[in-house]
Amino acid sequence: ACRLQNVGEQGHMALLGHSLAAYISVLDRERLRKLTTRILSDTTLWLCRLFRYENGSAYYHEDDREGLLKICRLVIHTRYEDYTLEGFNVLYTKQPVIYISSAARTGLGQALCNQLGLPLSCMCRVPCNTMFGSQHQMDVALLDRLIKDDVEFGKLPLLLVANAGTPGAGHTDKLGRLKELCEQYKMWLHVEGVNLATLALGYVSSSVLAATKCDSMTLTLGSWLGLPAVPAVTLYRHEDPSLSLAAGLTSSQPVEKLRALPLWLSLQYLGHDGIVERIKHASQLSQRLLENLKNLDFIKTSVEDELSSPVVVFKFFQEYSNRDQTSHAAQASTVQHPIISNEGHIYDTFNQWLGEQLAQLVPASGVDVVELEDEGTCVRFSPLMTSAVLGTEIQDIDQLVDCLKMKIPVLTSTLQLREEFEQEVRRTVGLLYIEDLGWPGLGVVRYNYHSDGKNEDKQEKELEKINTELLKKLNELESDLTFSLGPEFGGQKNCVYIGMVTEDLDVSELVETIAATGREIEENSRLLENMTEVVRKGIQEAQLQLQKANEERLLEEGLLRQIPVVGSVLNWFSPFQASPKGRTFNLTAGSLESTESMYVSKAQGTGSTPPPTPTSSLAKQRLPGQKAFKRSLRSSDGFSETSSISHCDDLDKLDQRPPNLSPGQEQGPLEMERAEEQKEVVQVKTDTEDIHSDKSPPDCTKAEDQASQR
């Protein structure tokens, strides 16, 4: 079942606002105009004061991209004076350019171009830093060169979309330098991102505080405060109300102004202190998680500011030792080794599995998996977007850290044993190692079926049958491993996928067991197939022999005995004695035999003893309670030594027992049971001897009686 959102009283207030808006809309026009103007002005004033945006106007919209779209139209109306009269002809003579960071939301630029009716060439994606600074921040120097090139080609730099908290890693662009660049080229600066919520706190980082000087910003209060069905808000500064009306940022219809009513009620209910407390609580959650992650090995964090970062991004990463670094550096200097090139894919797979496990074990944390351009697959914790809705508390963060501590040894052990498993499989005859970088586990193996000139279809069916049976046999073993057919989509066919493992796994025993079980299944399959062929040939041979025996019987009986009435009379006067000649098929020997001996002895012969069924000889002796594929570790030496010592003590007690001691005295239940079994065996032997003595010849018995009488 899906987790229901935490809709508290403030959520009910927001939902009540929609009902009130529908009721207010039926008021008379003058009262509606006064009421909607008051609601709109109060809400705008509160938001501008709360987020330190002076002298701003507000546009309320359902789609969070709609505010930026209206801002683009406002800038087009502002920079192109004849746009209202000439339309696209003005844009054709001097093409506008909108600049968006490469770390922005996916599809944002294309959506703007589609809604504005502009070609995609009007959208310029600005790369992020590669040498200096954060790899998720816009490269300001490169942006300056791009703007200069566009100006030289006769284009008009129109608008720049910056991030105060990128959608992936939550980093903030250098808004101060970007604002100076926009003033230089008379561009509009629009800012969006989750870090804008921290403007309501008492302490705000300088990078985020620079957003208050931008031309417009979009706020998504619904996710920050846990308010359902409240609109997003775009705050902007512009002096010409007519252009704002032409762009659609303001409306002359009073009903349009009622969009702010749910937010007006919610802000009234929460108050200034309640809003600040929610945002502060989310920041404390991220700081709590970041402090715990610093103390964990094999965890690499990617945060912009360790003192105040609302978004925490981390991943599992195992550093190489000095020796490994030297060898890898030598290999990388010559030719890129395939293991190194595949390392990033393996870590992405493992971090994908880690994020899914954490989200499943601690659903209240709200963690998710994010794909970053440089770091690859990471786990993201963004409490400003999830904590208010899910009701995340400090206890959930502590539980998340505990689960992470449990998963790290599993990840490190599996990563270390993957190469050993691959080598063991490649050395084992009959097994084929399948390289699947998208599988989070020990690896993928397939049992190779040795075909004897069979066609591909039959070979494929036999291969599927053997590997399916192999998977069933492996799952029947008492082990902590998970064997499966792999992912539902994109996996290899006819393979056995092995999941995550622990450090006490005996890889050699696992591979040997897989190979032996596969050979056993193949031998049984071949035995059954050969037996089917032998039985078919035996039936055909028996039919031929029975037909030949019938012909011989006709020759012996004569033609007259075959006539219905005459044959009966002739058989009554001169009966014909003929022994029945049947055939029996010996499955063990694979031969056809006569049934004459069966009719003579009145019993069916057992034939030779069938050969034993081939079984795996790798059944390793394990201690009580020990599961398969486990090797003894130092941590478990105490258990094994204790077991061996107790077992030796029992043997010493049995050896030191006096000869006249009865089997049941000072013995455990196992020894008493064995003694009872020995008694039963002796009793059975005695009864057998008595039976044989009773069956002695009568002459001997009479002689003994006569001797006793004398």
UniProtKB/TrEMBL annotation:
Q: Matching InterPro entries, A to Z?
A: GrpII_AminoAcid_Decarb, PDXDC1-like_2nd, PDXDC1-like_3rd, PyrdxlP-dep_de-COase, PyrdxlP-dep_Trfase, PyrdxlP-dep_Trfase_major
Write out the coiled-coil annotation as residue ranges: 532-559
Q: Which GO terms describe its molecular function?
A: carboxy-lyase activity; pyridoxal phosphate binding
- Chain intervals with Basic and acidic residues compositional bias: 647-656, 671-710
| Membrane spanning residue stretches | none
Keywords assigned by UniProt?
Coiled coil, Decarboxylase, Lyase, Pyridoxal phosphate
Q: Where is the PDXDC1-like third domain?
A: 421-526
Keyword Coiled coil applies: yes
For this chain's UniProt record, which GO biological process terms are given? carboxylic acid metabolic process
Residues in PDXDC1/PDXD2 second domain copies: 309-415
Q: Where is the composition biased (Polar residues)?
A: 635-646
For activity, the cofactor(s) needed are:
pyridoxal 5'-phosphate
Where in this protein does the record put region Disordered? Answer: 598-710
Q: What family, per the record?
A: Belongs to the group II decarboxylase family.
Indicate what this protein is called per its UniProt record: Pyridoxal-dependent decarboxylase domain-containing protein 1
Organism (species): Tichodroma muraria
